[in-house]
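In this section we walk through a basic example: taking a raw amino acid sequence and producing a predicted 3D structure, encoded as discrete structure tokens. The instruction is simple. Fold the sequence below.
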Amino acid sequence: MHKTLVSTETLARHLDDPKWVVFDCRFDVTRPEAGREGYLKKHIPGAIYADLDADWSSPPGPGDGRHPLPDPDALCERLSEWGVGADSQVVVYDDGAGSVAARIWWTLRWLGHDGVALLDGCFGKWLEEGRPVSDEIPQPSPAVFRGAANDAMWITTGEVERLLDDDASVVIDARPPERFSGERETVDAVGGHIPNSVNHPLMRNIGDDGCFLPPEQLRRQYEKMQKPVTIHSCGSGVTACHNLLAMEVAGLPGSRLYVGSWSEWIASPQRPTARGE
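The resulting token sequence is shown next.
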């Protein structure tokens, strides 16, 4: 099974394979309906639309980040309806180099399904290669998906607070430099970052061809930052998964996701923040 990345060529060979389930994960935080609108116009044949807000997150409560984890039982039921079973190979893609699809990849792994991979190059590469698209909405055959949440894969705000001054831990922030520094915040009410965190914008994982860099190149990048406790953060625990995936591709597994990320961190004015590089 493919557990990190899968090529467009490989997916094209399996479009009619009933054991392969494809999710279109396009989503724009500034216009949440845009992803579904794009999907309805054209998508990879057989792909099911994965709505980050409606299907893959819980509604945020007071003090939560923008994208809390979904209810595991409800998501398992939906995955069964979508035809995902224990032996399914799931492929996820978006139109942003995997910035959203990586969260869907991580969520399936959180539920214990290892057979999930990001389409390397995503929808952009698929289109550039002239591969088939469709506007038909698939009608998947139901399966039985039994998952169990692995809460060792993520970390709470309280745990991040306790680790702030721990030399054995690091928070790697996937947001663009101008948001990390606080110079230009485009989404959240407060700019800046968690003290002592380091900035590694997710696009540093991507080469000029729109695909992930080779494993050895990614390893060189992340070995400089990695610590015994490596935590990935961003604005709401979504794009952080891109860096987490990159570490898996590099052969550096075991880091954890800060699900609440910056949007949850700033929910309390008592938490310290930092600005600048």
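Looking at the output, two observations stand out. The chain has two domains: 5-149, 152-265. The CA atoms of residues 64 and 203 lie 26 Å apart. In the next section we compare this with other chains.
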